[in-house]
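Input record (one chain):
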Amino acid sequence: MQLAIPFPDISPILVEIPLGFTSLPIRWYALAYIVGIVIGYFLMRRAIDRPSLWKDDKPPMSRAQLEDFLTWVILGVILGGRLGYVLFYGKGQFWEDPVAILRVWDGGMAFHGGFVGVVLAGAIFARRHGLPPAKLADGVAIAAPVGLFLGRIANFINAELWGRPTDLPWGVIFPGTAAQTCPDVAGLCARHPSQLYEAGLEGLLLGALILWLAFVRGWLRTPGALCGTFIAGYGLARFIVEYFRQADAQFITADNPLGHVLFLGPASVSMGQLLSLPMVVIGLLILFVARRRA
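The corresponding structure, as predicted from the sequence alone:
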């Protein structure tokens, strides 16, 4: 008998607030975004409050500017994440129903799009306020992993973005017809809990490394080094987890069961890997240039 873990009975909705004839559901996924941004804000504020951590003992911004920047980050995450999903994973379906782009409550956010959104928001904010872009990017790198960790935990609670079928004892039996549609598996289908793999690599491991480098090893005194480490680290973590993660349904066909989008023989890659490879290269280049300048 195959060993597997039944999916825990957790509702995607944390609580419903009654509002007259209707109610307002508070979902774990929305809460993950909110809590992740709040914790990230306090991590950045803690770093800013310690000038000795930064090059020339000058943080990239004041507390007041950080509060303004928070709004820009929220807009960058939401707009970039949604548009990234539409462009990278929509496969043209939103051209037929453009209004669906606005229905974010139906799901569909892409990290790579949110990343680009935050980069653009940070670049514009830095230019408008005359802030050092590299130092600002290092501050964002401190805050980002906690949001990634909480977001992946929320993905698990929502029973979405699960992994490929597995017979390993920690495989999880996710609910739903899609999760239980495994042509080569008899009976219940256990899958890799790839959301938890990502939470561990992108959130815990990468986050711990970033905090250690920032607050213990003094890497904030080398502008850009922390940012490069985060970008390369995320790209590498995501590339690895993609080997265990089920590809998006729109890329899977009878002739392409793994959902590859770039065919290179044995080295064929998924959309997530295709978007992550440039992050690894760019991150390493940023790190190399930052260390050379130092």
